[in-house]
Structure formats: structure tokens, C-alpha cells
Amino acid sequence: MKSTVEHLSPTRVRINVEVPFDELKPNFDRAYRKLASQVRIPGFRPGKAPARVLENRLGRGVVLDEVVNEAIPAKYMEAVNAGEVRTLGRPDIEVTKIEDGDHLAFTVEVDVRPEITVPAFGELSVSVDDVEIADEEVDRQLDELRARFGTLVGAGRPAEDGDFVSIDLSATVDGEEVAEAATTGLSYQVGSGELIEGIDEAIIGSEAGESKTFVSKLVAGDFAGRDADITVTVQSVKVRELPEPDDDFAQMASEFDTIDELRDSLRERVGMAKKMQQGVQARDKILEALLETTEVPLPSTVVDAEIEMRAHDAVHAFDHDDAKFNEFLESQGQTREQFDADVRTESEKAVKTQLVLDSIADAESVTVSDQELTERIIYQAQRFGVSPDEYVKRAQESGQLGAIFADVRRGKALASIVRQATVTDASGNAIDFDALFGPVAPAEQDAPEVVEGETAEVK
């Protein structure tokens, strides 16, 4: 097989491939077997008709079509590997010549990863917020702990912000009952914002047994985006009583003997959380610095695919009804044109980020172990509320295992840059990421390596 690569632009190539018919003999053998099993020819058992008989019955063109359709994908990948082409997206393939008995020729145009020059990581410098712990933050942590041991008692008064109520709900649109919006005995904390807009205003000031009706837009179901008359009936009003923050509470709720020891522990917890936030802030700022200082030609078809995916996901919640989606955007003070422009900007940034981090991962020789891939799968499975085995099955069916691998690899590449960059807090103190996240573990000599493009075994 002969192949050449023409660079049409920094992000697109044309691959010219010529395959002698001698190399296609295995494809012809498989084509004859497949066609023989599909066609009944008098005098021959199923699957046993000779090649010449099949060609006389079906025509040479049918056989050639079967051979070409099977051979091109494999020969394309062979040409990609031979030319060390890092392809992106779907290829556009055109058969240019079928010289029967001599050779097959075809061309492929496909987007490729551009060559990217990244800045020296040691020269990157960002500043993050200081770790400052206010007494109010410790008080809030303590109150949350007290709330876990609190008890609900009848308020004996109209509902106020923060109260716990039991409510019944019903809704109508143009006089028609909305069955999916009706419920009884629903527990709700006033002011939590977990229910429909306007419900808090209706509940506050209501006594047990009182009903109020208000207008709000439904956010789901057949009437999503429509104004509905919603009736809320308060069945009960309760308030949470908290235990006193004293030594007795400390002994009941923790391993500490005094409330002062418990507060000190909560202060340390708040401080650690803020140090972790410093790490996240550093990661985000360094990534922004990388994107600002790195020139990246963007492959148009990859960007278009990202735009299509994001737009599809947005409209999916509205049963792919563009009219309903546009109405929702208008209710949020946004036009479809603004939404489309925002999606394009976000998609271009996402593609640029992926390309930059992939280039860095290559330069830094970042690898992903089976354990790291498994940990990500377990984490994602927990997020979606499914078992790891079910998540892997879905990922395999949708061809997403490679994307999961790539995300882990990009994350490791970015973490490596953060450690090499200069990160200080607002007071000028250097951030010690080894102290925060632990030192980088040495590579395990016997650990299996996951190769990009292959399916990793999940144990």
C-alpha cells in the first residue's frame, strides 16, 4: 500500500491511498463468504457457492462494493499510523479509482491536531486568595452540626422564612388540571429555593390549613414554560429547635470533650476547605493563562460538532421543541441569537482547552493507569447513580471510554503544570501543593499502562 499526506491547512490534511489488489485478497475471501451466506443459489448449499458462480449471479460490481466498503476503514487507519497523523473528527472519504485486478485508490480529508507551542510552565505565575477564616464561618459550621441534632416542633404561628412546612400543591393551565404538578404532604423548608418560583412568597404569612394561589411558570412536563395557576395549602408549620452549643453538645456530636475543642476542629476544617479552593483557583487561573498565551488553530469540524452537541443537550430538556426552548430563553432575558453566540464561544474554548492539554500531555509523557481510569469511572458512576459496571457498559455502547481516558489524562497534565508554575497567595506566600495534595507518587514500574485509543480493562 502507498500513502501520502498533504497538509491543506494547520488543522486539515488530505491522505492519498493506493492499495494493490494483491493486498485485498483477504477482503475478497470474506466478501465471497458473506455474500454466499446471504444468497440462495440452486444446486449449492447455503454458503457454499463458488466465487465465480456468485459473480455470475450478482455481478462483479456487488463483490467489489463489499470489498471496498470493508477494506477502506482498515487501510485508512493503516495510512494514518504510517503518516503519524493525529486525526480529529470524522473523515471525508472519496473513492477515486477502482482498477479491477490492479489497484484501489481513495482520498481522505480529515481534521488533525495542530502543532502547538506552549509557554514554559515554570514562567507561569498566578495569585490566589488568602486563606482567611472568619468566626462567622466557624459559627455556620457549628450551626449546621447542631441542625443535624435538632428537633422539629410546632411553631404555633404563621409560616416564616426558614420554617419547615408540610404542603399540598395543585396547578391548572387555562383551567386544565396539570396532573404531574399535584402532590400532597410535601415537606419543604421555606426559603430553600428548591421548589417553583413564587412559592415562598405564598407560604410566608400562611397559617396551617390556609391556601393561597399564585402564578408561576412550569419548568417541566407537557406544560413546561407555560404560566400556571398554582394553589399551595399549608398543612403544618414547624420550627427547628437546636441544642445549646456547650460541652454536653460537643461530647454528644463529636469525639471532643469541650465546645472549644470542637470549634478549633471546625476551624481547621474550614481552613482545609479554603486551601483546597486555592488549589482549584490556581488550576483555573493557570489554565486561563495558558489559553491566553497559546495560539491554537481550531479545526472547524470539531468545533461544529461541539456546538451541535451543546445545542442538542440544551434543547433536549424541552423535547427538542425549538419554539418551547426559545420561549424559555426569552423568559430568561436572552435571545436565541445570544444563546447561539454564547455556545460558539464556549465550544471554541472547550476545543482549544482540549488541544492545549493534549499537547502538554504528549510533551510531558503523561500516562493513565488502570487504577486511575477505574477511579474516574467509579466517581462518574456515583454521580449518575448507577453501578460502575452499568456505567462502563453505557460508555462502551456510546464509544465514550476513550473520552473518559482523555479527560483523566488532561487533568493529570494540568495538575503537572500547576506544580511547575509559581503560585502565591495575595500576601505573597508561595503555595505548597505537596503539603496540600501530597507529593507526586513515583511511577510504579509494574503498573500496566493505558494506551490512548485502546479500551482499558476495568477491574
Describe the structure.
The protein has 14 helices and 14 strands. It is α+β, with helices and mostly antiparallel strands and 459 residues long. The chain folds into 3 domains: 2-112, Trigger factor ribosome-binding domain (Alpha-Beta Plaits), CATH 3.30.70; 151-241, Chitinase A, domain 3 (Roll); 271-450, Trigger factor, domain 2, CATH 1.10.3120.10. Helix 10 (336-363) crosses helix 13. The radius of gyration is 32 Å and the shape is extended. Residues 442-459 have low confidence and may be disordered. This is Trigger factor. InterPro entries: PPIase_dom_sf (IPR046357), PPIase_FKBP_dom (IPR001179), Trig_fac (IPR005215), Trigger_fac_C (IPR008880), Trigger_fac_C_sf (IPR037041), Trigger_fac_ribosome-bd_bac (IPR008881), Trigger_fac_ribosome-bd_sf (IPR036611), Trigger_fact/SurA_dom_sf (IPR027304). Belongs to the FKBP-type PPIase family. Tig subfamily. Its main location: cytoplasm.
Q: Mind sketching the topology for me?
A:
Layout: E1 2-9, E2 12-20, H1 25-38, H2 51-58, H3 60-82, E3 87-99, E4 103-112, E5 125-128, H4 135-148, E6 151-154, E7 164-173, E8 176-177, E9 183-189, H5 199-203, E10 211-217, E11 227-241, H6 247-253, H7 259-293, H8 300-316, H9 322-331, H10 336-363, E12 368-369, H11 370-384, H12 388-397, H13 401-420, E13 422-425, H14 433-437, E14 449-450
Parallel strand pairs: 5-13
Antiparallel strand pairs: 1-2, 2-4, 3-4, 6-11, 7-8, 7-9, 7-11, 10-11, 12-14
Helix pairs in contact: 1-3, 4-7, 6-7, 7-13, 8-10, 10-13, 11-12
Function: Involved in protein export. Acts as a chaperone by maintaining the newly synthesized protein in an open conformation. Functions as a peptidyl-prolyl cis-trans isomerase.
Pfam family, one: Trigger_N
EC number: 5.2.1.8
